[in-house]
Amino acid sequence: MTARTQRTRLLAACAVAASVSLVLTGCGSSKSSSGSSAGAGTNPSATVGAVTADPTLAALVPADVKSSGKLVVAADASYAPNEFKDEKGNVVGMDVDLADAIAKKLGLTADVQNADFTSIIPGIAAKKYQLGMSSFTDTKEREATVDMVTYFTAGSAIAVKKGNPDKIDPKDLCGKKVAVQTGTTQADEIKDTRNPDCTKAGKPTIPNDGDKFPLQTDVTQSLIAGRDQAMMADSPVIDYALKQTNGQLEKLGDTYDSAPYGVVVDKNSPLTKAVQGAVQSLIADGTYKQILTKWGVAAGAIDKSEINAAKS
Predict the structure, then answer these.
(1) Which residues contact 159 (CB under 8 A, 6 or more apart)?
(2) What separation, in Å, do the N-terminal and C-terminal C-alpha atoms of the chain show?
(3) Measured between alpha carbons, how far is 11 from 8 in angstroms, rounded to an integer?
(4) Contact of 136 with 129, CB cutoff 8 Å
(5) What is the pTM of this model?
(6) Domains 57-154+260-300 and 155-257 equal at CATH topology level
(7) DSSP 159-223
């Protein structure tokens, strides 16, 4: 991934026609996030151990945040299993549980709010949110304006319809119709890497620099409906979509370009060190692994949280 510059969030897809049967999410328009039931490999009802405040870490929390008693956390709830809406409309997922645990370590309560992905970093700068936890890839570009606290590792992946009817080569998407979420790492990959390579090779480019959608649910719908031939997203999101679509999709090739996710914090905020300490403490006491296991994403676990550790 080079940047969810945003890595994409791919959640479940809705039924797009009577002939398309998905176990996936509840249907929603492209203007709102869709709900989703948990897929195979997840256990949303699993119990996670109680988290208690760490006085040393709590002492690092800025006075205004401490006095409010809460951490306001932004997440784009269209990217299961990392962040999505359940059948009751509640925002749930790996990032939500981690945000809750981080807040408790700091003696606070997490207030997780659904937000458009592209509005989250500007919202951090405007003090609307204290944290952004929405599968953000840690990149040098992002680190120029915000702090990033690493907490997970994911890569990019490609999905096609079961059986790969268009015989697509994951290393050669030139001329193919590919769906991606707007503003994601995968969208940047098409524009900055794949299409220039297609041009150099004398091949047709991926049309429109990829068909871009505001929500990952819309990306998945487009592939299911046959409007696109492939979709690109973060690896845990692709894996979840495969489980949710009842075998209608398959992963094409291997996961590639693995990179860390980062919690977004305002640049040079004392909260950055507090959050990094909270993540490391959750790793040490086992809570972190419990949360990842609950959502079926333990393969992305890290053993050390770092601040602004992007390699590119």
Answers:
(1) 223, 230, 231, 233, 238, 241, 242, 249, 250, 251, 252
(2) 10
(3) 9
(4) no
(5) 0.74
(6) yes
(7) EEETT-TT--BTTB-TT--EEEETTSHHHHHIIIIIHHHHHHTT-PPPGGGSEEESSHHHHHHHH
Tokens 């550790």 belong to which residue? 309
Closest by CA to 5, choosing from 144, 161, 231, 187, is 187
Report domain 57-154+260-300's class: alpha beta
Q: Which residues pair with 73 in a beta bridge?
A: 112, 131
The pair phi, psi for residue 83, each rounded to 5°, is -160, 125
Q: For each of the chain's 312 residues, which pLDDT tens digit applies?
A: 334 544 333 333 332 222 233 333 322 222 233 334 444 467 777 888 899 999 999 999 999 999 999 999 999 998 889 999 998 999 999 999 999 999 999 999 999 999 999 899 999 999 999 999 999 999 999 999 999 999 999 999 999 999 999 999 999 999 999 999 998 889 999 999 999 999 999 999 999 999 999 888 899 999 999 999 999 999 988 988 888 888 899 999 999 999 899 999 999 999 999 999 999 999 999 999 999 999 989 889 999 999 999 988
Residue ranges per domain, the chain?
Answer: 57-154+260-300, 155-257
Fold of 155-257: D-Maltodextrin-Binding Protein; domain 2 (3.40.190)
Q: Which residues contact 154 (CB under 8 A, 6 or more apart)?
A: 1, 7, 135, 137, 234, 235, 236, 258, 259, 261, 300
How far is it, in rounded angstroms, from Cα 297 to Cα 299? Answer: 5
